[in-house]
Amino acid sequence: MSSPRVRPKSDMDIEKHREEGNWQQCLKLAQQSTDHKELQNFLTGEAKLEIFLEEIAKKNGGDSRTRHNDEIDSTVLDEAKSFLKKCIEGNDETPLMMDANLLLAKAYYISGDYNEALNYIHHSGIDSILDVDRNLPLRVIKLIAESFTVKGLSLEKISNPKPLKYIDQVYDLADSYAAKSSADKEWPTKLRKQTTFEDRDCYRTQIDCLQKSSILAMRYVHGITQLRGPYLIVNLGCILESALLKTHHIFIKNGQTQGAVDYCRRILNVCETNSTINIRQLLSKELAEILIKGMCRSVWKKPEHHLKQQTNPPIYFGNSLFLPQDYEEEVMLLLMLSEALASLHVLLERSPDFHESRVQSLNKVLLIQDLFTMFLVPLQCYYVDIYERSMKYSYEVKHVWYQFALTLMESKKCPLRSFLLFKEVIRMDQQDPIPGLFAAKLCLTELKRFEDAIEILEDSLNRYQKLIENHKKPSITSSVDLAIDQSSSSHESSALINHIDEIYGEQNVLHSIHLLLGIANALLYESDTETSKKFRKKYLTNSVAHLNDSIEQDVYGNDYLPYFHLALHLAHQRALNDAIKYVRVALLLNVHHLPSIQLLILCLTGLKQYDEAYELCLNALQEYESHLILLYMKAHLERIVCENGHELALLTAKEMLKQWRLVSGEDNRRLSPRASYCSFIPTINYDTMSLRMEQTLSEVISLESAPIGNSNSAANVHHQPHDLSFGQSDRLYLSQASSVNGSNLVLNDNTRPCSQAFEMQIWLLIVELFLQLDQINEAETCVNDGAVAVFGQLSHQLMYIKGVISKKRGHYYDAKIHFHNAISINPKHSRALQQLGHTYHMLGNQIIAEKYLKDSLNIDSTCHETWCYLGRALDSINEHERAIECHLTSIRLEQSSPLLPFSIIPRCVLE
């Protein structure tokens, strides 16, 4: 290839076109030149070979995984071989010998004749090259790089006749063009027998050749960029792209994961150009895959820090170069880099002509988003920004909207927006019943939209029943194709059936739908809206029916949640014996289910079996030492069971406050992004982060009004006097704080109001215990020094507790003022209304006392103390018959009254 100092203008034009890759023009000029026959044959063969490669790339549409071999005419390739052979036949001393042999090796590699390709590589003498001169023409550097690639990949094909399962199948010319021509040949077996390489030596040779080729390819790109400007897009060709994108696969195939990681880091550290953006995106994605799937953080090694500049090819260097400090940080950086580069090239044109290209570009981004999900979800970290950016090219793409909705739901950042996203997913896909389950879960746990939940779940049930009736089951297509191609509705229906049957199971879907319907009807039955008051029994009946259907549809019989919710139904209706039977079944299925343990403790206290309840609470605390709800129950049980119970309960309450402060002090650390994926603490999540937990029994129900079972326990409960109306209680947010992380409480932004309410309950318990010990000054000090900071100066809880203290001192007028202040802030505070009514009774104003006590019962009709106070007030005004009825009701309620209200146990327990 060395040229004389003085060259004709036509030869200079040929060299110019060769450097620029203008092979059609180069072919015309070569055919016009007749001075040097060997050079003419060489240039013609080279031009025809490169034109053939361009034709392959054009037929494949620029996508490495799209192959149209049947449409490619091999005549041009055969002509290129013949011209190159003429160039070297009968003259071994020609200066074109090396270049012609390299081009022939390239041509035979394309044809799938790997043995011939290796023979021509051997005859070219390229094996003796140790270092490539920087001053060589760029075309020669590219040809040498391609030859190293041909040698490495040919050795790989010979030593591995079976196809490899790569991380992501990269386009290979030999795979593409030779697939059809070698279908009738048995060359792999023959070549394997003829091979004289040992496996290990062959592997080292492959790696050495491919690494040399990769470095030379990057040198070529940067050389062209310096020569012709930074905005030029250099066409590396499929052979050099194969070298750059398959070298780390060879490392992995031979068990050298660290070698693959080092190679990818080295190539990614080369300075970026416009021509290497696509390669950089693919390598960063595949390196992230290698780290996620093939390497754990214990064997991860920090990347090397390059302090000195290298110019061949240029790399990033210097003290300001940012390096990831841990395993998670490198994976995140790689995925963010790959996603940023892939999203730049997503095709926005929606015309049918660009449909296939748009789907292919979108699939690249979807793959990276799925990798984000795989990596971040186990770390309980959720990256929402990628879905925000993808909205511009995700019109009617179900997969993106679905992932966005799930990520928002799990991140707890914006439940309403997550619900609206699920609604869009439901609209996009008119057949899939699964998104409705997630939307209903949000309605139940976060948004308190119970009627919407029932409507969505009934629609999901109808959808699944229609899918089952169709009985069409062809192969599953990708979610992107289903979302984009609206003409495949019947195919989509069948694919969904397969998808649901394989992943969820028919019975599991029906079981989940009925379970959620049972919970939704129960919550609607327990709500305080006027509409639900008219249809209370209807919702109760529907809830029980769906929970029973959920048990029947659970073919494996291992779901404890229906039994737990049925037990909670029975407990609210004071059918405690039957409730214990159901909750024991739930605990047999899951002995670690804390809400079931808490429910069993309260049921035992309702049956006045305090010793058994206390023993169960202590056993539970052995495993969950710092669980605040269990400690709260323990403090109340100690007052009854233990000697000096109030002192022991006070110590337990102080321990609760100490644990609370320790947990709340770690709030910011636990919520920081770094801690979220650097702390690997197993979690137990019961989805108790609802916004509000209300009193669930607004009226005492007789046996006839409870269509669950014949229970002797409920026989003691009768209807209340008809002149009283019944409402709902504003129980404090104990249930919201019952979600635990091992022995610690999980906190996030959505739990702060609930967390503050639980701290209020701790202070109220401490003050109450001081009052029961007749330590009024200590109780008042506790309120002034501690509780004010939690309650606030104008909170109804602070006014209420001040009223209780004033009432304990006998200052009834001051107590009355405090209770009035409390109900003026919160008119539905049943305890304040109860104490205000009793205070008026103590002051002798029985008419006003009766009024406030009735208001308290309108909110919470299950409190036997309120019925007792009302009986005393009625007895004082000579309403003896009504007073007797109230006292009897108080006695009946007290017989089955738990130590704490059942409302502290969350109804919306989902897993």
Query: β content, as a range?
Result: under 5%
Radius of gyration: 39 Å
The outline comes out as elongated
> Which percent bin holds the helix content?
55-70%
Please state how the strands of the largest beta sheet are arranged side by side. Answer: 1-2
The total of helices stands at 41
| Count of DSSP strands | 2
Given as residue ranges, the uncertain stretches (5+ residues, pLDDT < 50) are: 1-6, 63-70, 163-197, 472-503, 667-753
Mean pLDDT: 78
Termini separation (Å)? 72 Å
Overall SS class: mainly alpha
Mind summarizing the main beta sheet? 2 strands, antiparallel
Pfam family, one: TTC7_N
Function: Involved in endocytosis.
GO cellular component, one term: plasma membrane
InterPro entries: Endocytosis_PI4K-reg_protein (IPR051722), TPR-like_helical_dom_sf (IPR011990), TPR_rpt (IPR019734), TTC7_N (IPR045819)
